[in-house]
Amino acid sequence: MEKAIKKADVLIEALPYIKSYSGKIFVIKCGGSALINPEIKKKVLEDIVFMSYVGIRPIIIHGGGPFINEEFRRLGKKVEFTEGLRVTTKDDVAVVNRVLNQVNESIVSEIKKIGGRAVSMNTAKKNVIKARPHEESERLGFVGVIDTVNADVIRNAVRPRAIPVISPVSMGKDNELYNINADDVSAEIAMALKAVKLVLLTDVKGIMRHKGDESTLISTLAMKDARTLIDRKVIQSGMIPKVKACMNALSAGVSKTHIIDGRISHSLLLEIFTDKGIGTEIVRDK
Ligand SMILES: Nc1ncnc2c1ncn2[C@@H]1O[C@H](COP(=O)(O)OP(=O)(O)OP(=O)(O)O)[C@@H](O)[C@H]1O
Ligand SMILES: [Mg+2]
């Protein structure tokens, strides 16, 4: 009985959050690192389906780094990153697209298994993002940035309570495929859909002052300090596009941005429905 009452208490504690977030769009980026372990993946997607049933409108953008690396190794391809962005040849981008389409389909079918509704929005189904070449495309190859977002198609999907699942490969105006960093995509989609929250799920606790040392986790980081940490190379590699994505989203009016650990059970629910706040929150400068 005690236990049951506690459970009800927890639900009631979430009520103010559920009330204020009902009908609001949340953009959630699932890093490949949060998808590689099937148990973790299932838990993350259960949280997202839960959110959709209590009236939040989640949109998922997924990465797929570890899956792509594995396939590159299998094919004898070189894995190379510059400041968190994957150097992608024309031949590579077809592989990236193929792997990400598989990741996309697997997320959609897992959501359906859990009892949620999902709509696949990958390059093969609905190409909801248009790319243009990255300004350093000479060095990076077929890496793109977002040119336009088809917000209407995404909005029409979230209205009947479906969860769009968006892959970060996109066709450009030149009919070439471009690999876009999924953190960038999530920020642009959050802006285009006027999301209230952008949450980036990854494989570390958040931003750390000393990479690898969890006791140096930074709970709240102002944008100007984030820039300093990038300049001082405290924030490196895959964390750079994340921090930039949060800063862009905040500048464009997204209210809250978080980088959290997808490996922690129910990290999303804890972040959204309690005061506790886990991971790193990036905030506008005062
Ligand atoms: N200061 C820092 N604090 C925490 N992590 C950092 C820091 N600097 C660099 N990192 C790295 O950033 C990585 C997260 O980015 P990464 O691109 O590898 O994963 P992801 O974006 O979640 O997945 P994917 O790229 O597949 O979408 C961490 O595993 C960590 O090694
Ligand atoms: Mg990454």
Strand percentage lies at 15-25%
Ions and ligands: adenosine-5'-triphosphate, magnesium ion
CATH topology: Carbamate kinase
CATH superfamily: Acetylglutamate kinase-like
Q: N-to-C SSE series? A: HEHEHEEHEEHEHEEEHEEHHEHE
Largest sheet, spatial ordering of strands: 5-8-2-1-11-13-14-12
- Beta-strand segment tally: 14
The top-level CATH class is Alpha Beta
Structural commentary:
The chain has helices at residues 2-21, 38-53, 65-75, 90-114, 137-140, 151-158, 182-192, 223-231, 239-251, 267-273, and strands at residues 25-30, 57-62, 81-82, 85-86, 118-121, 129-133, 144-149, 163-166, 169-171, 177-179, 197-202, 220-222, 256-261, 280-283. The longest helix has 25 residues, at 90-114. The mean pLDDT is 94. Helix content is 43%, strand content 21%. Strands 5-8-2-1-11-13-14-12 form an 8-stranded mixed sheet, with helices on both faces. It has a two-stranded antiparallel sheet with strand order 3-4. The protein starts with a helix and ends with a strand. Helix 2 packs across helix 4, helix 3 (65-75) crosses helix 4 (90-114) and helix 7 (182-192) runs parallel beside helix 9 (239-251). By secondary structure, the protein is an alpha/beta fold. The chain has a single domain (22-283), classed as Acetylglutamate kinase-like (Carbamate kinase). Strand 9 and strand 10 form a beta hairpin. It is globular, with a radius of gyration of 18 Å. Bound molecules: adenosine-5'-triphosphate and magnesium ion. The site of magnesium ion has 5 residues, from loops. Residues 31, 63, 65, 84, 238 line the site of magnesium ion.
